[in-house]
Amino acid sequence: MKLGFLTSGTVDDVRFAARHGFGCVELALFGETPLFTDHREFKDALRAEGVELAAASLFGKNYRDPDAKQRQAHLDLWERAADLAAALGTEVFIAGTGRSPNVPDEAQWDSVVEDAGPRIEGVQRRGLKFAFYNCHWENMIDRPAAWERVLPKLPEVGIKFDPSHPVYDGRDWMSELLTAGPHLLHIHAKDVLRINGKHIPDPNPGFGQIAWGPFFAILYEAGYDGAICIEPHSRLYGGENRDRFLVLSGRYLRQFMLPVG
Q1: Nearest Cα to 51, choosing from 93, 22, 89?
Q2: Domains of the chain and CATH, by start
């Protein structure tokens, strides 16, 4: 396994990763990025520092937006992001499905193969693996019932798993990770903290209530040997002390990772 973190695609993040023993980073895309214009400096830094780009992810875009102009803009962004992922030499491209308003989940699951299948095949023709993220943010393929219904119809498509999302949706993350095991292509490490019914915004791993020992035990049982990327998510952990919290969480998670050799 390799430990990394999410980045917007800066050279400084690559150098920070190398300096603090992170073997990889994940490019997190939410819209426009300077890398669409010129990605050479970022790619050169990855090569020079020996840091792997484990995945490129495009989050929160509704490819089923009822507004045709918005829908086409999201679809165009998917293609540009997939081109960028291929140009940067990553292995995995991660995205959602979009959502249709007022349509039952099961009906949307059944339409994903026809709707998203050709776009996913385009990603695969670029030499990339494709994974759905397990968050419901503009995404329908986010839980076991959807995986079991859709993944058999989409060859070699997998899952990016984050244990916080099942918890926030009132489900059992351990059971869902075990189900996802054969399909895992990428992992996010983000914690959960709830006290007396109050949600404390998204702490980094080691600062919350996810049991990371069992988490890694399930990964080992599944034979997963890919990247685990810390996702600094809240204002505290993604703010001015982001790098220091990344160092602490990296130190915490490494206790569960087998030594090299």
Answers
A1: 22
A2: 2-254 (3.20.20.150)
